[in-house]
Amino acid sequence: MTPDTLSRVFAALADPTRRDMVARLSEGDATVSQLAEPYGMTLQAVYKHLRVLENAGIVSRPPGPQPRPVHLEVQIFDLMDTWIEHYRRRAEQRYRRLDDVLAAMNGDDHEQERAGGHRGRPEASGHPDHA
What is the model's pTM? Predict the structure, then answer.
């Protein structure tokens, strides 16, 4: 997937109406009239939304006379998932490293407590409050 394709896909899905259309198409193909039913907009506006989704590769319509079914191109989601998973794995690795550092710091605190020392506190022998 090229960066331009990815940008078009995310830009297309940024609109709540288009996301709703995609959600409805996940149930099965639909005609433009069927897609337009729940929206208070003209067919022309619905066609504009579909054109954005088509240009991003999210939906397709076969050539031919009307009515033509709008079809969800599920492979685009596989490509998006690959991109998202790459960054999710990187973030999870960072969090695991942070967990390791925190666990090591926590382990150091416990070792000092067992040895009788207290991090950040003065020793009893030389402090005026402990006389």
Answer: 0.67
